[in-house]
Amino acid sequence: MDIFNDIQQEIAKKIKPDSNISNWKDWKWQLKNSIQSIGKFELLTGINFSEDEKARLKTTLERFPLSITPYYLSLIDNKNYENDPVFKQAFASVDELNVLKTDLKDPLSEDSDSPVEGITHRYPDRVLFHVSNICSMYCRHCTRKRKVGDVDSIPNKQQLLKGIEYIRNTPQIRDVLLSGGDPFMLSDDYIDWLLSEITAIPHVEIVRIGTRMPVVLPYRITDNLVKVLKKYHPLWINTHFNHPREITSSSKEALAKLADAGFPLGNQSVLLANVNDCPRIMKNLVQKLVQNRVRPYYMYQCDLSEGLSHFRTPVGKGIEILESLIGHTTGFAVPTYVIDAPGGGGKIPVMPNYIISWSTNKVVLRNYEGIITTYKEPEKYESKFCDRDCDNCDLDLQLDEADEQKALGIEQLLSDEDSTISLVPDNNERYNRREEDAG
Ligand SMILES: *Cc1c(COP(=O)(O)O)cnc(C)c1O
Question: Where is the region Disordered (predicted)?
Answer without folding.
Answer: 419-439
